């Protein structure tokens, strides 16, 4: 039997002005309702340049950049986290979902 070597996971952490969240509902047209770590539900969209390359499902952990005009209500989804990346965020206690 071969021993499994733990793989190092590269994770994009939130920068200033960015928030982690979990997708709660698909609203159509690349829009989603996201519950953010600051306990606010935002209507978030996938920006035009990323629409074809960023596929989002329910209960997926995402990185949100709130809009300057409506920071409490709207935002853009700029990244998503898959299994090992989300586990790393949980391990570092950045999310509690």
Q: How is this structure best described in words?
A:
There is one protein chain. The chain is mainly beta. The longest helix is centred in the last third of the chain and has 9 residues, at 83-91. It contains 1 helix and 5 strands. The chain has one domain (19-91): OB fold (Dihydrolipoamide Acetyltransferase, E2P), CATH 2.40.50.140. It has one helix at residues 83-91, and strands at 19-28, 31-36, 41-45, 61-66, 74-81. A 5-stranded mixed β-barrel has the order 1-2-3-5-4.
Structure, briefly:
This protein has 97 residues and is mainly β. It contains one helix and five strands.
Keywords:
mainly beta; single chain; five-stranded mixed beta barrel; 97 residues; OB fold (Dihydrolipoamide Acetyltransferase, E2P); 1 helix; 5 strands
Main CATH class: Mainly Beta
The chain-level structural class is: mainly beta
Mean of pLDDT: 91
Count of extended strands: 5
CATH topology: OB fold (Dihydrolipoamide Acetyltransferase, E2P)
Percent range for β-strand residues: 35-45%
- Shape designation: globular
Rg over alpha carbons:
14 Å
Strand sequence of the main sheet, in spatial order? 1-2-3-5-4
The CATH superfamily turns out to be Nucleic acid-binding proteins
